[in-house]
Amino acid sequence: MSRSTALVLRTAQLVVGLFLYGAATALQVRAVVGVSSWTVLTEGLEHVLPWSFGVVTVVSSGVILLLWIPLRQKPGIGTLLNALAIGPSADLVLWLVPTPSELVGRVLLFVAGLALLALATACYIGAGFGTGARDGLMVGVHERFGWPLWLARTVIELTVVGVGWLLGGDVGVGTVVAAFAIGPVVQPLMPLFRRLPWSPGRDGSAPARVAPCDSECPPTATPAPSVEVR
Questions:
Q1: How far is CA 201 from the centre of its chain?
Q2: What is the largest CA-CA distance in the chain?
Q3: How far is it, in rounded angstroms, from Cα 27 to Cα 15?
Q4: Mind listing the pLDDT tens digit for each residue in 93-139?
Q5: Which of 99, 94, 14 is nearest to 55 (CA)?
Q6: CA separation, residue 41 to residues 181, 191, 215, 224 (Å)
Q7: Which residue, among 120, 130, 131, has the nearest Cα to 18 in the 3D structure?
Q8: What is the pLDDT of residue 130?
């Protein structure tokens, strides 16, 4: 397979993964049993800003990218696609999918969202275009201040959950389940998306140094902190 064809297919994989990521986030929001850390903050901001969930997601990603400047992180095309694609995808699915009236339906919707999130995460990370805005923030704090990755992630995520909860974000059982479950679910899927015919390294290029998944995977699913700038 030529490098140009592989690049096109990798880009398509990235876009599909990001669309599914936004869709999965929307399903968790509609389940109303608690959402993951950064989504708590997005929901909280949605209560105080006259914007949709997706617009808040895009704007907050832009603000986070500004924080990359003093942390000496360098965004690329993949980072920008990450920031721009997830919000509109989430808004579309929020428009299409209502909240189930029964608790059983909401729990099933949350489980479906969690499974889709794991699939989407492995899909877009496997494309090999590097980190998204939120994990770039974590890596930047780690590299700039010398904090261990687990400490940087813990401080950042506890902060965003706390602020989001104070603003009215949905903190619940699902928040805890997402924090502990997504890593082990993503981990076995990663090799599948790194062994596709167009995966980085299989087209004759150097293998990509894949960064952590953006904002949802706990340290158990986080690869080495080296980042391929997108």
A1: 24
A2: 52
A3: 19
A4: 999 999 999 999 999 999 999 999 999 999 998 888 877 888 889 88
A5: 94
A6: 20, 31, 12, 26
A7: 120
A8: 75
Task: Please say whether the beta carbons of 37 and 117 come within 8 A.
Answer: no
42: which 2 tokens?
């997005």
Where does residue 157 rank: exposed (0-12), middle (13-18), buried (19+ CB within 10 A)?
Answer: buried
> What is the DSSP secondary structure assignment for residue 189, as one 8-state letter?
G
Model confidence pLDDT, tens digit, residues 132-180 = 888 889 888 988 999 998 898 889 999 999 999 999 999 999 999 998 8
- Which residue type, as a one-letter code, is found at position 129? F
How much is the pLDDT for 149? 83
Residues near 121 by beta carbon (within 8 Å), at least 6 away in sequence: 17, 21, 182, 186, 189, 213, 214, 216, 217
**What are the structure tokens assigned to 38, written together?**
């950064």
Q: Pick the closest to residue 3 from 198, 207, 210, 230 (CA basis).
A: 198
Tokens of 201: 């390294």
- Please answer whether residues 105 and 119 qualify as being in contact, where contact means their C-beta atoms are separated by less than 8 angstroms: no
Helix 133-145 to helix 149-166 angle (10° resolution) is: 130
Under 8 Å between Cβ of 27 and 167: no
**Rounded Cα–Cα distance for residues 124 and 20 (Å):** 9
